[in-house]
Write a structure and sequence with these properties.
There is one protein chain. The protein is an all-beta fold. 0% of the residues lie in helices and 47% in strands. The protein is built from no helices and 49 strands. Strands 1-46-45-44-43 form a 5-stranded antiparallel beta sheet, with no helix packed on it. The chain has a 4-stranded antiparallel beta sheet with strand order 2-49-48-47, with no helix packed on it. Strand 25 and strand 26 form a beta hairpin. The protein is elongated and about 75 Å long. 55% of the residues are buried.
Length: 551
C-alpha cells in the first residue's frame, strides 16, 4: 500500500466492543423491512485493494492486500481468489518465495514480516519495522526487505526469526518492489527519484541502472535476463536492458499499478490497487488479459445528490474517487490514486452539498473539497487527526468529525488553517450530516449513539442510544435519519424527535474486520439518500453498493 512520505500514521485509538461483532464472514441475503426491497446496484469483488504478487514453484499465484489484511491464492483460469492466510497475519504488501519454497510477506501497517513453508504454521521473522514494504530472497536463501513511506531503509532479515534485522543502508529514496538479478545484485525502483537502481548488498553500494520514470513501483526479471518495471503514475509496463538502461514501453495499462510477478513461461502478472485487479501481459506482443477485476476497490463513505430524478452516488473508494449512476449502477472514475497529475489521498469518507463533494481520509489526515461537476480540487486541507465525515457549510467553512481528538472541528480561513473546536469529548465521531436550525447530526460509534449538535451553542443532545457501532448517517426527505448500524449489520431509520429506531435492512455484509495497525472502525460504512427516498449503502465486506427502495 503506497502513500506519500511524511503523512501521519494513525494507530488504534480505542477499541469498541460492539465492533468485534462486525468481524464476520459475508452473510447471506439481507433481511428487509416489509415495505422495502434491495438491489445490488454495483456488484462486489475480491480483495480490498491488491498489492504484492508472488508465484510458487508449482505455478500458483498469490496476492496480498494491506487494507484487507489477507493473503490470497488466485485461480488464474477461473478469475477467482480465496484467502490463503487470513487477518491479522495475512496482511501482505509484498510476497517472496525462498529457494526451498518458503513464502514470506510484509505486513506494512504493523511492521512485521511473516513466513510459512508449504502449509505449515505462520512464523514471525521480524517486527518493529513500520512501513515494511518489499522483500526478496537471494539465491542462497538470505532474505532482504525495505521500509518505504514510513521509513527508508534496507535490511537483511534473519530467516529463522531469532536475530534482529540488520540495517544495510538507508535514505535511498524509497526502494520499493525489488528482485535479485542473475548477477546476484538487488534491482529495484526508487519511488521518489524516478529511477531503477542496483544494489550490491555486501559492499553495500547503489548504482543507477535507468532513470526518467514518473513513479516506478516494482521490478522483476524474466528468464531471458530482461528487467521489467511498472510505473504506477503513467500505468506503463516497461522492459529495461539492465546493462544499458535502455527502456521500451511494452504495455499501456491504467495508473495505480503496484507490483508484478513473472511465471515460468515469462508471462507477466501485474496488480492494480484501484481496479482490485490483476492482468496478464504477453511480453512479446504486449497483449493484455484481465485475470480478475472489480468495479470498486474498497468503498467507504458515500454521498448522494439528486439532479431532478437522477441520483448520483459519490464514493470514497480508498484507492479511487468514483461516481455511480443511481439508476443503472454505471461506475465512473474522476480520479484514482497515484495517477500522474491527480490530487487524491486515500479517500475513506464522502459527503456532498450543492456543487461540492468533500472527501476525507483518516489514514492521511486530509480533507479534500472537489467541484462536483468539473471534479477539480477546490481545497486540500492537511494535518487533521483521523478525520471522518466532513461537510462544507453555506459560509464556506468546513465541519470535520476528528476522531483523533474526539471532536467536531470547524475549519475556516485560508487553506482551512483557522480551526476551532465546536464540541469535544465525542465517543468515536464518524458520520456527519447537516440538520435544520443551524445543527448537525453525528454518529458516535464507540458510545453507540446518534447525537444532535447545536452549532451556535456547541451543546449536544443524544437522539438515539444503545446502538451497535453506528457509522454512516444521512437525512431522508421525510426528516428521518438513515444510519448504518455496523455492529448490528443493519441500516436503520431514526425519528430525530422521538429517537424511535426502525430496521430497514438487516444481515448486511458490512463491518470489515479492523485492520491491524489501523482504527477499530476501519473503513466507514456509508449511507446516502436520494430525493425520492431511495437509500444507498456501501458494503465494505463485499466491495458492493446496495440500493434500498420502497415497494
Amino acid at each position: 500500500m503506497e502513500l506519500p512520505m511524511g503523512l501521519p500514521m494513525v494507530r488504534c485509538l480505542t477499541f469498541c466492543a460492539a465492533l468485534s461483532a462486525a468481524a464476520f464472514a459475508s452473510p447471506s441475503s439481507p433481511v428487509l423491512a416489509q415495505s422495502y426491497e434491495a438491489t445490488r446496484l454495483v456488484p462486489g469483488s475480491a480483495f480490498h485493494g491488491v498489492h504484492g504478487l508472488g508465484i510458487d514453484k508449482s505455478g500458483r499465484l498469490f496476492a496480498g492486500s494491506v487494507a484487507g489484511a489477507a493473503l490470497y491464492e488466485v485461480d488464474r483460469a477461473a478469475g477467482t481468489a480465496k484467502i490463503a492466510v487470513p487477518s491479522p497475519e495475512g496482511m501482505a504488501d509484498d510476497i517472496a518465495f525462498a529457494p526451498d519454497g518458503t513464502m514470506a510477506w510484509t505486513a506494512f501497517l504493523i511492521g512485521d514480516i511473516y513466513a510459512r513453508k508449504d502449509n505449515g504454521p505462520v512464523k514471525k521473522l521480524a517486527s518493529g519495522l513500520p512501513g515494511i514494504n518489499s522483500l526478496a530472497f537471494r539465491k542462497d536463501g538470505r532474505l532482504y526487505a525495505t521500509q518505504v513511506f514510513l521509513g527508508d531503509a534496507l535490511y537483511e532479515i534473519d530467516v529463522e526469526g531469532t536475530q534482529p534485522p540488520r540495517k544495510i543502508m538507508d535514505k535511498m529514496g524509497g526502494l520499493n518492489g525489488f528482485e535479485f538479478g542473475p548477477d546476484g545484485l538487488l534491482y529495484g525502483p526508487l519511488w521518489f527519484k524516478g529511477q531503477v537502481v542496483k544494489v550490491d548488498v555486501d559492499k553495500p553500494e547503489l548504482t543507477v541502472v535507468a532513470d526518467g520514470f514518473k513513479v516506478p513501483a516494482a521490478v522483476n526479471f524474466d528468464s531471458k535476463g530482461n528487467l521489467w518495471v511498472v510505473d504506477t503514475a503513467v500505468g506503463q509496463l516497461v522492459r529495461v536492458d539492465p546493462k544499458t538502461g535502455a527502456k521500451t514501453v511494452v504495455a499501456q495499462l491504467k495508473a495505480s499499478l503496484d507490483n508484478l510477478a513473472i511465471d515460468a513461461n515469462d508471462r507477466i502478472l501485474v496488480s492494480n490497487m484501484a481496479d482490485n485487479g490483476i492482468q496478464e501481459i504477453d511480453p512479446a506482443t504486449g497483449a493484455v488479459k484481465q485475470i480478475i477485476i472489480g468495479k470498486l476497490a474498497l468503498p467507504g463513505g458515500i454521498a448522494v445528490v439528486s439532479d431532478g430524478a437522477k441520483d448520483t452516488v459519490y464514493v470514497a473508494d480508498v484507492f479511487a474517487y468514483r461516481t455511480i449512476n443511481g439508476d443503472t449502477g454505471e461506475v465512473s472514475e474522476p480520479a484514482r490514486m497515484h495517477a500522474d497529475g491527480t490530487v487524491l489521498e486515500y479517500p475513506m469518507s464522502a459527503t456532498a452539498r450543492g456543487d461540492v463533494v468533500v472527501l476525507s481520509s483518516w489514514f492521511t489526515g486530509t480533507v479534500q473539497v472537489i467541484d462536483r461537476k468539473t471534479h477539480k480540487t477546490l481545497e486540500m486541507l492537511h494535518d487533521f487527526k483521523a478525520p471522518h465525515d466532513a461537510i462544507r457549510l453555506a459560509d464556506g467553512s468546513i465541519l470535520v468529525n476528528e476522531l483523533g481528538t474526539k471532536s467536531l472541528v470547524r475549519a475556516s480561513g485560508a487553506h482551512g488553517k483557522d480551526r476551532k473546536t465546536v464540541i469535544g469529548d465525542l465517543a468515536g465521531p464518524i458520520g456527519l450530516v447537516e440538520g435544520p436550525n443551524n445543527s448537525v447530526y453525528l454518529t458516535e460509534a464507540f458510545a453507540g449513539q446518534v447525537s444532535r449538535v447545536d452549532l451556535t451553542s456547541g451543546t449536544k443532545t443524544v437522539v438515539a442510544k444503545e446502538l451497535k457501532a453506528p457509522e454512516g448517517i444521512a437525512l431522508a426527505p421525510d426528516g428521518r435519519l438513515i444510519v448504518a448500524e455496523v455492529g448490528a449489520r443493519r441500516v436503520v431509520a431514526i425519528d430525530p424527535q422521538t429517537g424511535t429506531v426502525t430496521e430497514l435492512a438487516g444481515n448486511l455484509p458490512i463491518g470489515l474486520a479492523a485492520t491491524p495497525g489501523g482504527l477499530p472502525t476501519n473503513i466507514p460504512t456509508g449511507v446516502g439518500v436520494g430525493a425520492s427516498g431511495a437509500i444507498y449503502v456501501s458494503l465494505d465486506v463485499e466491495n458492493a453498493i446496495y440500493k434500498l427502495t420502497k415497494k
